[in-house]
Design goal:
27% strand, alpha/beta, globular, 7-stranded mixed β-sheet, Rossmann fold
């Protein structure tokens, strides 16, 4: 995946990056977060959700698979999904992912377990890697993200 490399040396940088993404998120967008265990996917997702206006607890959806946030708690409907436990991409359809996504933005952890979203024009793919003391994000946006790169 060709993309732009962004250094995230600490939690403050990760939260700032998440706020920048959250400020540009639109209905229909997908933020696809990849990376190994402990790479910071959920931390970044929480920062994006906070930027959308949610000021409460943001549980990891690893057990429930899908957590939904609706206005007025957030500025637009938002789905946070963790597909780690899926063994086949068809399971995403079985749990009704398309229904949840209607009019909502999606933050997808482990998107490859759900078949991936990179083919969608509104997909912002972020690969997180542990780098020295912080993280490195490799970011590639679909055509709907052109001109909306708030981290620049």
């Amino acid at each position: 995946m060709p993309g732009e490399s962004i250094q995230l040396p600490d939690l403050t940088a990760m939260e700032s990056f998440g706020r920048a993404i959250g400020s540009q998120l639109r209905a229909g967008d997908v933020v696809a977060l990849t990376g190994g265990l402990g790479a910071g996917k959920t931390t970044l997702a929480r920062a994006i959700i906070a930027a959308m206006g949610h000021d409460g607890e943001v549980p990891s959806p690893s057990f429930a698979i899908i957590e939904v946030y609706d206005p007025p708690l957030v500025r637009l409907p938002l789905v946070h999904a963790d597909f780690y436990r899926l063994s086949d991409p068809r399971e995403a359809q079985e749990i009704g992912l398309d229904d949840y996504r209607q009019g909502a933005a999606l933050i997808a952890e482990w998107p490859e377990h759900a078949g991936g979203f990179a083919h969608e024009h509104g997909c912002l793919s972020i690969a997180l890697e542990i780098a020295e003391e912080g993280r490195q994000a490799i970011v590639a946006g679909g055509k709907d993200w052109h001109g909306r790169q708030p981290w620049r």
